[in-house]
Amino acid sequence: MTHMDTTEDIQALVTKLRFRHLRVLITLDESGSMHRAADLLCLTQPAVTKILLEVESAIGVQLFERSAHGVVATPSGRCVIRYARVMSAELARMSAEVRALEAGQGGTVSLGAVAGAFPTIAVRAVINMQRNHPGITVKLREGTSASLLADLSEGLLDVAICRTAVCANPDIFDRVEFGAERIAVVAGPDSPLSRGGVSSLADLCTRRWVLYPNRMPAQRLLERELMEQGLEMPTHPIEASSTFVTILLLNADPGLVSLVSRETAEIFAAKRLVSILPVTIRARTEPYELVTRRGSDLSPSAGLLIDALKRSARQQTREAEVEDVAP
């Protein structure tokens, strides 16, 4: 196979590839089998093989390793599949936006955010935008920074509020820095810790912890805080990437403690689902960022959402500053 290296080659590729080629690549990657891919696509196995060979011939590289156990994408294949997913998502988004416009509506926009950004920034922005633009459909997704950036890079999200520091290649994104997240130490509502006897992290070192997965910002924050105080990281924590799961665990076991965003903790504490412990975290988290895929052509709906998110972030910063100076 020969590699593409001229404008003519790229133009030839554009004329040869069809949407069915993208679907076959994505389905092969997800199924790991020619036979299963053929069943999922309602095609014969020879037809799937023929389409794959057409793509490999057009691009000039082998995209999948074949074996008796199935198919696995090559490094070049993973690159092509990533762009195939982006193009597939963009086509789906285009179709949804056209249907919405034909129905007299305002289109669709997808937003992903880490859990702590929802009560501080995202919820207020989405509600305010929909009040002003009720015809826009907003799709929301909660996740870790790593999962949101993966979805953003594949075109599954328009905008994300997360942290690009967890990404190996942050230069593929455009980002605007928002404020830092405030962190609270929490326990279950019936925890004996909520009745006193706790004033610092040193009092919690022997407790069992629920933490975000290794190398996530919240866990790095705890590492820095403990290091500054000459304390060891908790051993054998429960790792949970979901705030909802963390709250369930705290309610199920009064002996557990965890870190969540301050605003999230206050919401759950008001419903008596957690107790906020009087422990000060001095270390600063990495700031939230408003992230989009570099070079993407954002829809008007996405532009409206971004403006609403920026206004919400500015309001949150002002409120936090007032709270910090309050007696």
Description:
The chain has helices at residues 7-16, 19-31, 34-41, 45-59, 75-102, 117-132, 145-153, 217-228, 243-252, 262-270, 300-325; strands spanning 64-67, 70-73, 108-113, 137-142, 159-162, 173-177, 183-187, 208-211, 238-239, 256-261, 275-276, 289-293. With 327 residues, it is an alpha/beta fold. It folds into three domains: 7-85, Orthogonal Bundle (Arc Repressor Mutant, subunit A); 105-180 and 287-325, 3-Layer(aba) Sandwich (D-Maltodextrin-Binding Protein, domain 2); 183-276, D-Maltodextrin-Binding Protein, domain 2 (3-Layer(aba) Sandwich). Strand 1 and strand 2 form a beta hairpin. The termini are far apart. The mean pLDDT is 87.
- Annotated CATH topology of the largest domain: D-Maltodextrin-Binding Protein, domain 2
Q: Going across the biggest sheet, name each strand in turn.
A: 4-3-5-12-6
Count of β-strands? 12
The tally of structural domains comes to 3
Ends apart, CA distance between termini: 72 Å
Global morphology: globular
Which stretches of 5+ consecutive residues score pLDDT under 50? none
The ordered string of helix (H) and strand (E) elements is HHHHEEHEHEHEEEEHEHEHEEH
Q: Can you identify the CATH superfamily of the largest domain?
A: Periplasmic binding protein-like II
> What is the correct CATH architecture of the largest domain?
3-Layer(aba) Sandwich
User: How much is the radius of gyration in Å?
Assistant: 24 Å
Helix content: 40-55%
Structural class estimated from helices and strands: alpha/beta
